[in-house]
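With this grant's support, we have settled on a layout for protein records. A representative record follows, to show the layout.
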Amino acid sequence: MHPDIDAWLPWDPPTFTARMPGADFPWMVAGGWAIDLFVGEQTREHGDLEIAVASSFFATVPPRFPELDFWVPRGEGKLARMTAETLGGDSHQTWAYDRAAQAWRFDVFREPHDGDIWICRRDESIRRPYSDVVSFTDNGIPYLNPEVVLLFKAKWARDKDQADLATAWPRMSPGQRDWFRQAVAQVHPGHEWASLE
């Protein structure tokens, strides 16, 4: 038996960040929350909290949360307890389950990297220094820059992804927009987002 896959009661970024003092490896808020951190306010409800961690440092994360169990999504609504074997599968995600609250708190993306170089898991030829893809809020919360978040959101372009695009696009720099269009065209040839003005 595994926990209810839909039982999400996610933390917010400050709650997670408070548990990461001294973490001197690349980690950052990703997904929709990263867009809100970029614009400086919460613009919509969030059904989860996604955190990206450089994969070789992932093992240092679970010990910071002894009250949580970690599970690996296995597709088709299935989950497996985190083990060396399940971490070695195809999934890059690891969900954190709060036993007391009986709810999922956050999802960790185990992201490929080469030292201080971020590697896009959708196309490993796309690489940038972490210093170019991560920014920080005034109170020190690291977040994935919007052009990278939106590249991942382009795959599905759901209503919430469209909303995040509409929120971020007017605030993105010309350089961020250029990189985004080029990356979307490379990863998703013919995607309408690659021709945004």
